[in-house]
């Protein structure tokens, strides 16, 4: 990473205010953990519209009582590394190790997950890290601040005398420590901080360092889910008969013979192709041993 | 027609037409989506599985031709010594980018190492030439195969 390009003036690390527009909201997650949603700034009018409609989280941090830290990824991993760079931004400020986080892909929801620089739910133009750079860190920092506040309250000490590292809050003076998972239920009841301090670049442990890709394990054992692997309920497959020449149009279709084939459900005529809702897969009847 | 297939050590019974490609059986009938559809014409290697240990393009392999032979897919290749070594090397070197072709790459690489434990660059290029990677991870694929070969002694 080229540090000269990493810190545009507006992103200089410093105690930063979280404006109403970027507000964070904590609520009790299922299972009593800490759920922290945050949103990215929208462009222009959409920002105002989103603001008027209230809370519109764009991504989530979820910390369970079992210590599981789930990050919801608003950008599609296509080999460009967004499933590693975005978690790095959050983990840097949250003070967790990359090996401690699990990732989930965000559902389709343009209002919640629009790319801030494109205004639509899309990934491209090399702008995910750029657009999410500050907000992801603020989300991580706010969560950390709340976890520290929860620990300080439990121990009846000054939050400033506590610090966090590797998913644990420490109070060194009394040699006490608590894992994030143990603190998550209490942290969910802590008011969202008005301001959070972001780390200075010289204090970064993750950002600017090489990292092992977090998406590799799923891509070497067949568990990574691609678009073609998704099976929405009731989905049917179709085979396309396309024009052999570019710009060709369908003149007429005689679908009598095709309709007679067992398993064919529907034949759809398009401008430039005919779709037959039938594949080998559709003709299957599975019996399991 | 009912076919009994030995897939990853388990016998699975499927009722499909005889000309159904093995890839369709795996993905659409059995829901095993780790094996990928790429071209459907055995040109890209994304659908590679092992049939009795041999790297085979499942997209053009009719289910009726499989018979009693053992089918191994990406979901279970890690249970073989070569598959395990290849997956470990892939992890260490972060071989995949988008990863779509990598199931096929790993199946071809592990089949190569099973018959040729210490392949030369020429051996690797020859064995892997049918597996296309649009991200262009070929350099790391070759390094991964060499690392896996070393780890297997």
Write a concise keyword list for the protein shown above.
heterodimer, A: 289 residues, alpha+beta, Aldehyde Oxidoreductase, domain 4, 2 domains, 5-stranded mixed sheet, 3-stranded antiparallel sheet, 14 strands, 24% helix, 19% strand, elongated, disordered N terminus, disordered C terminus, B: 153 residues, Ubiquitin-like (UB roll), DNA polymerase, domain 1, 5 helices, 37% helix
What does this structure look like?
The complex is a heterodimer of chains A (289) and B (153). With 289 residues, chain A is an alpha+beta fold. Chain A has 2 domains: 217 residues, Aldehyde oxidase/xanthine dehydrogenase, molybdopterin binding domain (Aldehyde Oxidoreductase, domain 4), CATH 3.30.365.10; 53 residues, no CATH class. In chain A, 24% of the residues lie in helices and 19% in strands. Chain A has a 5-stranded mixed β-sheet with strand order 2-3-4-5-6. A 3-stranded antiparallel β-sheet of chain A has the order 7-8-9. In chain A, strand 8 and strand 9 form a beta hairpin. In chain A, helix 4 crosses helix 5. In chain A, 32% of the residues are buried. By secondary structure, chain B is of the alpha+beta class. Chain B folds into 2 domains: 71 residues, Beta-grasp domain (Ubiquitin-like (UB roll)), CATH 3.10.20; 75 residues, DNA polymerase, domain 1. In chain B, helix 2 crosses helix 3 and helix 3 runs parallel beside helix 5. The longest helix of chain B is centred in the last third of the chain and has 14 residues. The mean pLDDT of chain B is 96. Classes of the chains: A alpha+beta (289), B alpha+beta (153). Chains A and B meet through helix 6 and strand 14 of A and strand 2, helix 1, helix 2 and helix 3 of B. Strand 14 of chain A pairs antiparallel with strand 2 of chain B, so a sheet runs across the interface.
């Amino acid at each position: 990473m080229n540090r000269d390009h990493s810190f545009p003036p507006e992103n200089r690390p410093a105690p930063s205010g979280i404006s109403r527009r970027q507000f964070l909201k904590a609520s009790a997650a299922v299972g009593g953990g800490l759920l922290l949603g945050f949103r990215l700034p929208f462009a222009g009018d959409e920002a105002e519209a989103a603001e008027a409609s209230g809370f519109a989280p764009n991504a989530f941090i979820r910390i369970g009582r079992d210590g599981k830290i789930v990050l919801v990824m608003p950008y599609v991993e296509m080999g460009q590394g967004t499933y590693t760079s975005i978690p790095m931004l959050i983990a840097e400020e949250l003070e967790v190790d990359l090996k401690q986080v699990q990732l989930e892909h965000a559902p389709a929801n343009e209002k919640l997950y629009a790319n801030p620089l494109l205004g639509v739910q899309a990934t491209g133009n090399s702008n995910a890290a750029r657009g999410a750079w500050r907000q992801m860190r603020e989300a991580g920092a706010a969560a950390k601040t709340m976890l520290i506040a929860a620990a300080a309250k439990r121990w009846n000490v000054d939050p400033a005398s506590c610090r966090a590292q590797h998913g644990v809050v420490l109070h060194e003076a009394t040699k006490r420590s608590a894992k994030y998972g143990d603190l998550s239920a209490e942290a969910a009841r802590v008011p969202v901080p008005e301001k959070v301090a972001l780390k200075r670049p010289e204090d970064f442990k993750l950002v600017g360092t090489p990292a092992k890709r977090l998406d590799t394990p799923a891509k070497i054992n067949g568990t990574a889910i691609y678009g073609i692997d998704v099976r929405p309920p009731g989905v049917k497959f179709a085979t396309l008969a396309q024009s052999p020449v570019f710009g060709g149009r369908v003149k007429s279709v005689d679908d009598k013979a095709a309709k007679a084939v067992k398993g064919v459900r529907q034949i759809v005529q398009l401008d430039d192709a005919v779709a037959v809702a039938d594949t080998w897969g559709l003709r299957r009847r599975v019996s399991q041993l | 027609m009912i076919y009994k297939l030995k897939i990853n050590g388990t016998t699975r019974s499927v009722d499909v037409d005889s000309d159904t490609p093995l890839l369709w059986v795996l993905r659409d009938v059995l829901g095993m989506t780790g094996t990928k559809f790429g071209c459907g014409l055995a040109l890209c290697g994304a659908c590679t599985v092992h049939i009795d240990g041999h790297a085979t393009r499942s997209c053009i392999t009719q289910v009726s031709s499989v018979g009693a032979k053992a089918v191994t897919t990406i979901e279970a290749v890690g249970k073989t010594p070569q598959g395990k070594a290849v997956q470990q090397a892939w992890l260490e070197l972060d071989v995949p980018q988008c990863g779509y072709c990598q199931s096929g790459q790993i199946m071809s690489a592990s089949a190569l190492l099973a018959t040729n434990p210490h392949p030369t660059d020429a051996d690797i290029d020859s064995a892997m030439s049918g597996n296309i990677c649009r991200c262009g991870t070929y350099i790391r694929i070759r390094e991964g195969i060499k690392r896996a070969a070393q780890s297997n002694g």
